[in-house]
Amino acid sequence: MTMPRRVEDILAHADDLAARFESYEPDPAHELDAKAVGLLRAAVAERSDAERHMVDAVKAARAAGLSWSAIGAFVGTSGEAARQRYANKVA
Question: Residue 19 and residue 29: Cα distance in Å, rounded?
Answer without folding.
Answer: 23
